[in-house]
Specification:
The structure is a single chain. The chain is mainly α and 301 residues long. The chain has one domain. The protein is 80% helix and 0% strand. Helix 1 packs across helix 9. The radius of gyration is 19 Å and the shape is globular. It starts with a helix and ends with a helix.
């Protein structure tokens, strides 16, 4: 079953990559780099390219959800890093962009950091087959705090938030969604045969709220940054948050983990996050937008 889950995660990564690129190009064409508003979102609902991307994203998410229920979180989550490479190549060809050295180094940092992190995490964690109600409630309360913080930022700084902040928020929120998906999946598969009756209502409300806000953040990030930057944030921040929750809340940390291994995991996570930050600063599309903005400001002056 483990290898089936891994295969589903890989296929899901391909769907997510192509879907993100399709949606990113559709949002960019609609907004012209401006903030995505409600009217713009309604137009996207009639855009075939965006809808095709949504279909692929839905398919990829479904595959990833099945994989999460069938195998440990620490094995499945980081496989999504494959999507970063695919999205980068596809978007570069679609936009006629030549990737600069800084972008290649940043992407390599993201993938290497994520891969190294999961290899270490596999040796540092063990699957928790039973999640206590108190642990599930703790995750939901932390998620409520995250939704409140990022939701407030979106309301207060709607037209001033950078693509990186949107990506950071989406990565954190979807990290919680991945953990809750696994917990809810375990509830549904409980042999008592009660299915949805096993799932606390607060978990359903929490995952719906986080999914909705995270999805809005992703679409807003598309309007201010390239799709490979969005995927980079999600495939790096999402699994790091998910694994951190698994270790700190769900008790998935093995009792015999050496301090050196923990330090190495922190270093790998830092490498991946630095890669995302570098990508948000040095990607060709990002630098071009900054130059265009400076030219426009100079003309206006």
């Amino acid at each position: 079953m483990m290898w089936v889950a891994v295969l589903l995660a890989i296929l899901g990564a391909f769907c997510l990559a192509i879907g993100a690129q399709r949606q990113g190009s559709a949002v960019k064409a609609d907004t012209g780099g401006l903030s995505l508003g409600s009217a713009g979102f309604l137009r996207l609902l009639r855009n075939p390219r965006w809808l095709f991307g949504l279909l692929l994203l839905g398919l990829g998410t479904a595959m990833n959800a099945i994989a999460l229920v069938s195998a440990p979180l620490t094995v499945i989550q980081p496989i999504g890093a494959i999507a970063l490479v695919i999205t980068t190549v596809v978007n570069a060809k679609d936009q006629g962009i030549k990737l600069n050295r800084a972008t290649v180094v940043a992407i390599s940092s993201c993938v290497a950091g994520s891969a190294f992190f999961v290899l270490l995490a596999v040796n540092a964690t063990e699957e928790n087959h039973h999640v206590a109600p108190s642990e599930e409630l703790t995750i939901v309360l932390l998620l409520a705090l995250a939704v409140g913080v990022f939701g407030s930022l979106a309301l207060m700084f709607k037209h001033r938030m950078s693509a990186f902040v949107y990506i950071l928020g989406a990565g954190v929120l979807f990290g919680f969604v991945a953990v809750l998906t696994r917990i809810i999946g375990k509830h549904l598969l409980d042999p008592n045969g009660q299915f949805l009756l096993n799932v606390p209502i607060y978990s359903l409300v929490a995952i719906a709220a986080a999914g909705a806000l995270g999805s809005w953040f992703v679409q807003s990030a598309y309007s201010g940054g390239p799709p490979d930057l969005v995927i980079a944030g999600l495939t790096v921040i999402d699994p790091i948050v998910g694994i951190a929750l698994g270790i700190t809340i769900l008790g998935e940390l093995r009792p015999d983990v050496h301090a050196v291994l923990a330090i190495a995991m922190a270093g790998a996570a830092s490498l991946a996050i630095v890669g995302v930050i570098a990508l948000s600063r040095h990607h060709p599309e990002v630098t071009k937008r900054k130059k265009d903005a400076k030219k426009a400001a100079a003309k206006a002056a």
